[in-house]
Amino acid sequence: xxxxxxxAITMGDPAGIGPEIIIKGWQEERFGRECQPLVxxxxxxxQETARSLGTNVRIEGITRIDASIFSPDRLLVFDLDNIAxxxxxxxxISAASGRAAAEYIFKGVELALAKKVHGIVTAPIxxxxxxxxxxxxxxxxxxxxxxxxxxxxAMMMIGGQLRIVLVTTHxxxxxxxxxxxxxxxxxxxxxxxxxxxxxxIPRPKIALAALNPHAGEGGLFGTEEKQCxxxxxxxxxxxxxxxxxxxxxxxxxxxxxxxxxxxxIAMYHDQGLIPVKMAAxxxxxxxxxGLPIVRTSVDHGTAYDIxxxxxxxxxxxxxxxxxxxxxxPLPC
Length: 332
Prior knowledge:
By secondary structure, the chain is an alpha/beta fold. The protein has twelve helices and twelve strands.
């Protein structure tokens, strides 16, 4: 019998709820049922978090990776020892916590590219803290793409029966429309089609969401559908990709409609994430498509307002670990 895959879990912002959901996830679900989990983070922070939660989780630091060292009765931490509990204030933004969170990601990607781990699951980071630390990225997705030299990449959210891929991600709404181009839409369609093989769906049924109300109403409410979306869709259809649309977004995401598709391509962040989080908030999973490594993440942020209070829900992290353990990296 083959050993379970090793999945690295980056600890996220140490001042947020990342350490807490890792401890709770290990306790409540025992990640070891799906994989051999390895936390990339700081041993002291995790031990302090366990004490504050009143748990007796056995946590041990390691400096090398070997399948023989994993055990269901202890949580292993690849200890970077890059921050101390006294360096941060739980629930507060700081450059120190942003720097530590970035370094966990760097190590996780390094291990995944070297095939030391099957993939990585990222606990939440704070984008402001990341920028204070000197890493001007809008989020995990863009940082991971640079670290892995990925040229074509996209964010997918999975929740309930929905899989949704975004054409644009973290942008002010006023900047979305200029980014909805023929090339960007076609690139996202091709990437989505190819990436669905990682979910064992080689011929997916793809729905394309419209950008404008009523799918533009023949150009009365916007021309992006006629000028960009439809030409990109028709070009993809010529290559055998099973995509239809563009469908008005106000009806596409209802279950009776969305269940007819394996994946939906949305134009912008809130268009795609609102239906996912309505369907499965706290259990949804973020997946980065187009990377040469498996990467999943939680559907929430650092939640500074509840950090350190024992209130965080590990549900999304549990689902992210399960998915990472069974996903295949591109090319599939």
